[in-house]
Amino acid sequence: MAWTVSFDPRALGEIKKLDRSAQRRVVRFLQDRIAGDHDPPASGKPLKGDKVGLWRYRIGKHRAVCHIDDENLTVQVLRITHRKDVYR
Question: What is the C-alpha separation between 41 and 76, in angstroms, rounded?
């Protein structure tokens, strides 16, 4: 079964603020590497500290912070922004 990707409203707003080429790169990454992947954690890294349970995906200069639900095979994108601002 394939994984599905859902977006938090905050993440959708952050995607809209990116330039067109960054938007395409982010969407293509999520479609190819996450939605089509049989193991999304293999493409990312787990976060530590107060963000335990969340995963980070590196997409050029941007980062996607996601929550992975193994039972329902869904990845919820919580934030997508530049690497210097994503963890604030």
Answer: 13
Domains and CATH numbers, the chain: 4-82 (3.30.2310.20)
Beta-ladder partners of 20: none
> Running along the chain, 88 residues long, what does each successive block of 10 average in pLDDT?
90 95 94 83 92 94 94 94 87
CB of 15 closer than 8 Å to CB of 23: yes
Q: Are 80 and 61 in contact (CB under 8 A)?
A: no
Distance of CA 28 to the CA centre of its chain: 11
Sign, Cα dihedral of 70, 71, 73, 74: negative
Q: What's the pTM value of the predicted model, to 2 decimals?
A: 0.89
Beta carbons within 10 angstroms of residue 82's beta carbon: 13
Q: Tokens 């809209």 appear where?
A: 16
Tokens 């999304």 label which residue? 40
